[in-house]
Design goal:
Elements: H1 2-27, H2 32-54, H3 63-82, H4 88-109, H5 116-132, H6 143-164, H7 169-179, H8 181-190, H9 196-220, H10 226-232, H11 235-248, H12 254-276
Helix pairs in contact: 1-4, 1-9, 1-11, 2-3, 2-7, 2-8, 2-9, 3-6, 3-7, 4-6, 4-10, 4-11, 5-12, 7-9
Length: about 280
Amino acid sequence: MKLFALVTVVMVAFAANSILSRAAIFELGMDATVFSGLRLASGAVMLAVLVMQRGQGWPVLDRGRIFAAGALLTYLVPFSIAYVTLPSGVGALILFGIVQITMFAGSALTGVRPGVQQWAGMSIAMAGLGWLLWPGGELVLSAVGVMFMVLAGVGWGVFSLRGRGSSTPLGDMAWSFVLCLPVAGLLMVMGGGWTGGGVILAVLSGAVMSGLGYALWYRVLPQMAATTGAVAQLSVPVIALVAGAILLGEVVTAKIVLASAVALGGIAVAVLGRKAG
């Protein structure tokens, strides 16, 4: 039960990143690259503080940690750019759908196979999410936005797999953000369109939802199979859709409610399948 509660908190934080990004970039007119830079910088500061508070020192910088920093950039910058055109919930769905594919592929390559119940649960969850966004003539997506979000999903999936295998996840994550600081500086200098509200949302996204959220995620991720972690993240677009409706005025229909219930039910089946398998 404690693990479930912690995972729930993390999923809400991940969904909040979509809401905050969309609100800052689309609603408040914040430049997407500036938002990315501020999110990276504030996340780096928060994680560095957490590492120093623990007093365990920084892990040795090696090729794997540099690779993880590259995966973080591959996720975070395209993620912000995608929200210039994509709605928050739709973007979250594309992101975590690709994350799931990436993590399942990585799991298979390392010899970890999902059980029958996990596959069934994943299928139900994907069916619910597919139903949620079944073309109805009203939803027109930008191909460029979709492309950037797909790239972000691959980056986040690789980053998650790297964190799952880490013996020092907090230190590794801090290194990933800190190594990205030069890029963050360039993004903030080269970008335009600074807004006061956007700065606040970017710092909140970076320090709280990303820094603290990711630290908690990599604390609980080693306790789950990679496939279970991938399926659990499918709740994020559902949370983002609901939050988007409440906070950003997105429309909520019976279809959204029912499809969300199907998706969450599939996730529950998959998580229970981990215990059964």
